[in-house]
Design goal:
This protein is an all-alpha fold. The protein has 20 helices and 3 strands. Bound molecules: carboxymethyldethia coenzyme *A.
């Protein structure tokens, strides 16, 4: 058994009694109440999911296993000469709660390299897509196609004990994660580089190998590491994480669950916002004829977008009420590496003017930028200008957190998810009854 798997097994054995005790002895303790506003309004803020892998504080932002993102970036081991840590270390942290040593990270990188070879039919499925297809549809299908590889499915049908479900979920998860950079870079090559691709390098870490396959020199390896790590997890209620958990709760395997979560991520209010930001910025660049706009010109553009009934992409959040630390980390990278980039200048003026405009507009509960306001600008700078592709990169990162959650869901025996729905008439009656009290 690998070092990571053994460590995970020990953690699971220690954790299980805590969950069992909570259900057995305190299962009827009330933790939240549901209002009509929440039932109709997308369950905003409703406490009804459990995860120990990450926690999102509205003011502070995400913590992975208790660590803020700046702490994660400071503490995780880095490849020699790299500015950003190993993505493999982030997986180790999310799965076990521990910061890995150099040796432990090297072991995970080694595991990934052993598992990275993609079955031939996955290339063929990607090749069969029309070239006008959206990369997220191809990405989701490529993952779905590999359902037939599922170790969990095989074990389930062979009658594996419930207590051991986490083990084949772990195997499927590592098998899939190791293949995602190859799938993504192949989709990119097929759609935008006439199929010319660069073979993966088994001696590189996940972020470095992805940059190598994209054919983009340093510091794009660090860009990739940073991108995959900051997108890895955002607790369980967001559309992609929740979809992954929901689909997995019926004991669908990792391939089925991750393909489904990718489809949720592909919506413009969620992960696709990174593509939307670039589309919107290009519109602005076009309008400005390539010159750096004044604050007044940018204000006008933002108001025009709002007045035409559209949202400002990359701004607002369902939980956060401050600037997203994932935005700040990327901004810091931009200040160090692409200070003079035209799009970064646009982004920075937007940061100065959009929050006040959204406050004046009076609708968005959070006027501050989220992760998607900055990520595409970095990709564009390093030559990945096909912005339809950006959400695929979000998907690689997000798969790390969701597979970690799926493994723990199975380890702790989380059951089928099945909330109860009510009718509008029932709500109207409840509202009347409450008014008469
Ligand atoms: N621009 C304009 N209006 C916005 C807005 C924005 N950036 N953010 C929120 N609003 C509006 C909402 O559309 C809503 O309007 P209505 O009352 O007319 O329906 C109102 O403000 C209240 O919304 P909210 O409670 O503040 O936000 P929600 O929790 O409903 O939605 C989000 C959150 C992210 C979907 C929303 O802020 C938004 O649409 N942002 C732009 C898209 C975006 O950047 N998405 C990426 C989020 C991060 C991620 O998941 O990747």
């Amino acid at each position: 058994m690998s070092n990571l798997k053994q460590k995970l097994k020990d953690k699971i054995d220690l954790w299980r009694p805590r969950t069992a005790k909570l259900i057995k002895e305190h299962g009827d303790v009330v933790i939240d109440q549901v209002t009509i506003g929440q039932a109709i309004g997308g369950m905003r803020g409703l406490k009804s999911l459990v995860t120990d892998i990450s926690y999102l504080d509205p003011q502070e932002g995400i913590r992975y296993r208790g660590y803020t993102l700046p702490e994660v970036f400071e503490k995780l081991p880095k490849p020699t000469g790299a500015e950003m840590p190993y993505v493999e270390g982030a997986l180790y942290l999310l799965l076990t709660g521990d910061i890995p040593t150099d040796k432990e990270v090297a072991d995970v990188a080694d595991e990934f390299n052993k598992r990275r070879i993609l079955p031939r039919y996955v290339y063929e499925v990607i090749d069969a897509f029309p070239s006008v297809s959206h990369p997220m549809a191809i990405f989701s299908t490529a993952i779905l196609t590999m359902h037939r590889e599922s170790f969990f499915s095989k074990k389930y049908h062979a009658g594996i004990n419930k207590n051991d479900y986490w083990d084949p979920m772990y195997e499927d998860s590592l098998n899939l994660l190791a293949k995602l950079p190859e799938i993504a870079s192949y989709i990119y090559a097929k759609l935008y580089r006439d199929g010319n691709r660069i073979q993966s390098n088994p001696n590189m870490d996940m972020g470095g190998n992805y940059a190598h396959m994209m054919g983009i020199p340093k510091p794009y390896d660090d860009v990739s590491r940073m991108h995959f790590i900051i997108h890895a997890d955002h607790e369980s209620g967001n559309v992609s994480a929740h979809t992954g958990h929901l689909v997995g709760s019926s004991l669908s395997d990792v391939y089925l669950s991750i393909s489904a979560m990718i489809n949720g991520l592909a919506g413009p209010l969620h992960g696709l916002a990174n593509q939307e930001v670039l589309r919107w910025l290009q519109d602005l660049v076009h309008r400005m004829d390539g010159k750096v706009p004044t604050r007044e010109e940018i204000k006008q553009f933002v108001w025009d977008t709002l007045n035409s009934g559209q949202v400002i992409p990359g701004y607002g959040h369902a939980v956060l009420r401050k600037t997203d630390p994932r935005y700040s980390l990327q901004r810091e990278f931009c200040l160090n590496h692409l200070k003079d980039d035209l799009l970064f200048k646009y982004t920075d003026i937007l940061y100065q003017v959009v929050p006040d405009i959204l406050k004046e507009h009076g609708k968005a509960k959070n006027p501050w930028p989220n992760v998607d306001a900055q990520s595409g600008v970095i990709q564009w700078h390093y030559g990945v200008t096909e912005y339809d592709f950006y959400t695929v990169l979000f998907g690689i990162g997000r798969s790390i957190g969701i597979t970690a959650n799926l493994i723990w869901d199975r380890a702790l025996g989380y059951p089928l998810e099945r909330p109860k729905s009510v009718t509008t008439e029932m709500l109207e009656k409840m509202a009347m009854k409450s008014k008469m009290k």
